[in-house]
Amino acid sequence: MQTTVTRSNQRPMPAPLIPHGALAPFALVTSLFFLWGMPNNLNDVLIRQFMKSFEISRFQAGLVQSAFYMGYFLLATPAALLMRRYGYKFGMICGLLLFGTGCFLFWPAAQIGRYSFFLGALFVIASGLSFLETAANPFIAQLGDAESAARRLNLAQSFNPVGAITGALIGTLFILSGVELTGAQVRAMQAAGTYARYLQTETLRVVTPYLVIGAAAILLAILVGRTRFPAVSVESREGTLGMPGHGAYRELLRYPHFLLAILTQFMYVGAQVGTWSYFIQYVQDSVHAPERVAGYFLTGTLAGFGIGRFASAFLMRWIRADKLMGIYAIVNMVLVAIGVLHPGWAGLWAIFLSSFFMSVMFPTIFALGLNDLGENTKIAASLLVMAIVGGAVLTPAMGLLARYGIQIAYLVPIAGYLVVMAYAFWGCHVKPWARG
Fold first, then answer.
1. In this structure, is residue 291 part of a structural domain?
2. How far apart are CA 245 and CA 256, in angstroms?
3. Which 3 state secondary structure label does DSSP give 432?
4. Number of domains in the chain
5. Mean pLDDT throughout 163-173?
6. Nearest-5° angle of CA 354, CA 57, CA 71?
């Protein structure tokens, strides 16, 4: 006798990772993750280049990251306020226009030849990226089913390290000249009156890559403007945030998992940015490699970061995002500790491998922090973007510690991964407090 399976006995089909009709905007927004990966990791090359062309210390060169991430910190809230009124698409267009403008400012900065002008241009670039991250991360997280938000965001963020690799490779090939003068050569050029011209030539090497990236940003702004975006789940039922019943900053105080996410993101970004910012110097100091060889090592570790993103998005089909992140944090504490205790080839490869395991952290912290925030999501996302200022604070701190040896500076990332581990295994599970 033949039996039939009733529809009521069938398991419900899982919601698609990317909803029907949303593939085009998903792909376009994902391209933004690629685009902003380039300037983020060109900074790591700029630090080394500016130490040479402006003859500054590691601490002073670390101010590249301070100027950059202060742009994130100061512009994230204005970005959220504009987007809660005009939407994510408007925020992305504003971000791309600011980003392109900052890239174009590299030309007058190079002509003037002042380090402070470059810092100003980097601040404008980061201001644009603050808009992009405040818009793109929550847009992707809310574009489909809430249960797959972390996986969807990890997938989109997987293209960020591809941009990072591209940026590091561009910097290594087109910014780093490979010319490293000895003290005797410097004195000879100073005596001949050619040293100032050499420094100016080294400074001008940074201009062309940024002009090309700026042009790409303006083109993407046009494409975003011409693309129809769907209303995401929260946006579609949202009124004016900050009004009673529609969410406000004070309501976020009820969610300890979100408040701890801010701290965790601060520490993680500081660990990530610091690791890469001084990696070229770590390679040179540890194994005495030329700057271009060190630049290729930086490109390689960023490739590991990218592989880690794709691998993690795949593994999350079977392993919960928080558990995977906690395991990765433990692995990274061990790897970076090897880098601190055994500077040389063993330490170099250990820190090199740490990029693979840090790959899951930013999008997972972001997605876990936004869980169950409803109409508070946009303003919460802006605060998580502001937490990126950890790169501005902890990178110069590493520069100060580097006075005692570049390997000592890597104690800072270990502290960052300790906080990530605590959040993964405990902090993200803390329940909301009752309303007062």
1. yes
2. 20
3. coil
4. 1
5. 87
6. 65
- Span 423-433, pLDDT tens digits: 999 999 998 88
Give the C-alpha distances (Å, rounded to integers) separating 432 from 203, 288, 404, 421.
Answer: 52, 52, 44, 20
How much is the average pLDDT of 105-109?
96
Q: Is residue 99 within 8 Å of residue 214, measured between CB atoms? A: yes
Is residue 365, in this structure, part of any structural domain at all?
yes
276-324 residue pLDDT tens = 989 999 999 999 998 889 989 998 998 999 899 888 878 988 999 999 9
- Looking at residue 119, its pLDDT comes to 95
The tokens 């869980």 sit on which residue? Answer: 371
Domain ranges, residue 117: 23-231+251-429
**CATH number for the domain harbouring residue 296:** 1.20.1250.20
Residues 360, 140, 72: CA angle, nearest 5 degrees:
70
Tokens coding 12 = 């419900």
Assess if residue 320 is contained within a domain. Answer: yes
At 241, list the tokens.
């945030």
Give dist(CA 278, CA 305) in Å, integer. 16
pLDDT in the model for residue 77 = 82
Phi, psi for 51 (deg, rounded to 5): -60, -35
CA–CA separation, 372 and 64 (whole Å)? 36
CA distance 248 to 260: 18
Asked if the structure places residue 14 within a domain, the reply is no
Using N-to-C axis directions, what is the helix angle for 58-86 and 88-104, rounded to 10°?
150
In whole angstroms, give the CA distance from residue 338 to residue 414.
11
Of 275, 376, 217, 301, which is closest to residue 47 (Cα–Cα)? 275
The overall longest dimension of the chain from CA atoms, in Å, is 101
- Tell me what the pLDDT averaged over the chain comes to: 87
Q: With a cut of 50, say whether residue 271 has pLDDT above it.
A: yes
pLDDT exceeds cutoff 50 at 35: yes
Contact status, residue 299 vs residue 163, Cβ threshold 8 Å: no
Say if residue 52's pLDDT is above 60.
yes
Closest by Cα among 298, 267, 278 to 394:
267
**How many percent of the chain have pLDDT more than 70?**
92
Whether the CA torsion 69, 73, 131, 320 is positive or negative: it is positive
User: Under a CB-based contact definition with an 8 Å cutoff, are residues 135 and 32 in contact?
Assistant: no
Joined together, the tokens standing for residue 134 give 């405040």
> What is the phi-psi region of residue 87: left when phi exceeds 0, alpha when psi lies from -120 to 50, beta otherwise?
left
Q: How many C-beta atoms surround the C-beta of residue 27 within 10 A?
A: 13
pTM of the model: 0.75
Average pLDDT over residues 95-123: 95
